[in-house]
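Memo to structure team: turn this sequence into structure tokens by end of day. - J.P.
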Amino acid sequence: MLKSISLEEIKKFWPKDAPDINNVPKYVSKYKKEKIVIKYGGNVLIDRNIFNSFIKDINILNKLGISIAVVHGGGPRIERELAEKKLPTKFINGLRVTDKNIIQIVEKVLIEFNKDIVNSLKKEGTDAISINSKMNNVINVLPEKKELGYVGIPDKINVNTIVNIINKKQIPVIAPLGLGVDNQTYNINGDTVANAIAKKLKARRLLLMTNVEGVYDDRKKLITEIKPFDLNNLIEWKVVQGGMIPKIKNCVDAVENGVRGVVILDGRKHHSILHEIFSDKGSGTLIRK
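Reply from structure team:
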């Protein structure tokens, strides 16, 4: 249950450049008993100012009593670490080929970032819990393809652990890592993890924070809302191309399997999460049936 919070209390922590504060109670009521999964990824991972804004938004959601789970990526940070160690990177269909040496670096970088998010939230006053391959692992994986090495796809998710954390008004912060049958660590695509968890939670919303405004039409105009069928057509017509294709397919899969709506939003914009949740206009592209 959401705790009752007055407008006067909200004013103490509501940012000036966030949506109209007078609408906040309406949306808090809307998300009562609902769950929101937020995936923090793309190049927004590197900019510390954007990171701090993200942390503040998550802290505000927690203060308002909204139930959320955070999934993060780490691609740009991994790239940086591999470049420093002069280790070449190869991709197959957008997925990093991950051998014994690379998986150790991937795991190290992702766990460090995971702890960074958790500790930053705690400094703001929000209790957060790390979920990764070394602590509270909830994802059992199957290998994706032999040629990809230690890259996995979620097979089983211990959703009870996530729900128990949420029920304690804590934030589960989930790294895109999982364990195979041999207890070997596998790297997983961050959107795939967020999608799998959102489906298990039957989330009201899955927010995918990235470094684009959303989905564009053939005239390069932002689409504010679209149905899965029309989204698939954009792929078929090659309006959506490259790295957006797997992201879009994850969105469609989520909406077709129990998630009420998926939003691709621009994580570079300050308080994009608040603008999405607490305004009719929203932020980015909403995909729903």
